[in-house]
Design goal:
- There is one protein chain.
- By secondary structure, the protein is an alpha/beta fold.
- An 8-stranded mixed beta sheet has the order 2-1-3-4-6-5-8-7, sandwiched between helices.
- The longest helix is centred in the first third of the chain and has 15 residues.
- 45% of the residues are buried.
- Bound molecules: iron/sulfur cluster (SF4).
Length: 262
Amino acid sequence: MSFSDWFRQDRLPHIYCAGCGNGTIINCTLDAIDKMGWTKEQTVFVSGIGCSSRAPGYILTDSLHTTHGRAIAFATGVKMANPALNVVVFTGDGDLAAIGGNHFIHACRRNIDLTVVCMNNQIYGMTGGQGSPTTPKGRISTTTPYGSAESSFDLCELAIAAGANYVARWTSYHVKELEKAVKVGLETPGFSFIEAMVQCPTNFGRRNKFKQVADQVEYIKTHALLKAKCDRMIEQGETVPGDMYIVGELVRRNRPAMGVKI
Ligand code: SF4
C-alpha cells in the first residue's frame, strides 16, 4: 500500500490555503504510518478543532473530529476501550495548549499509548488569527495588535516535564527528519508527542511581515537549532537565543504506560 492510498480522494479539494504547512505534516505522518505496515482497520485518527484538526477528514480510516481542545480526551477513550487500536491525534497549538491544555498534560502524566502530532503555526488560523499560547513575544495577531506581551509555552518542554515517553520537534522544512520522528513516536509505547513548526501565511505570515510563503519557511529553517548543538552551546557557556526552535529527539524513555497493546 502506498501512503496516498490513505487519502480520501473524494474529499478533495482540501480547505488549506495556498502555501499552508499543514499538508506537509499530514504527508509525513501518513508516510510514517504506511512504513509501520498498519492497516486502515487498525488505525484511528482523532482531532479537535482548527485547521490542523481538519486532517482526519481527508484520511480513509475511522476517525473522530471532536470538540475544541478535546481530541486527547476522546483519543484516551478510544485507546482505553480497545488497546489493540493504533490511535493518532492531529492537533494545533491553540487546540492542544489552550482549551485542551489540561487534557494534554494529564495524558502525558498517565503516559497513555497515543501519538500526538501538533502542527504549531503559533496562532489561531481557522478562527481568524487570534494569539495562541505559542505566539512568540512581540508577534502580531488580531488579539495582540501591538505585539504579544506574554511569554509563550514550549510545548515539548511541557510534555517532557509531564511524563511523555517520546518527544521530538521538527519543522515543515525538515520533512525526512519529521517523518522519522513520527515513526519512532508510533513505535514507542506510551505517550509520544511530535511538534512540527509550520508556516501559516494567511494569518501569521501576513501580519508579521513575511511577504512570501518562502520567507516564512526560510525563517523557520534558519531558526531551527539542533539539540546537540544547543547542548554544546550551553556546555560552553554560550547563550541560546530565545527565538530559536530546538529541533531533534528531545526525550525517549520507558516510563510505565497505559493502554499499551498486550
Ligand atoms: Fe493553513 Fe493558516 Fe490557512 Fe489555516 S489559516 S489553512 S493554518 S495557512
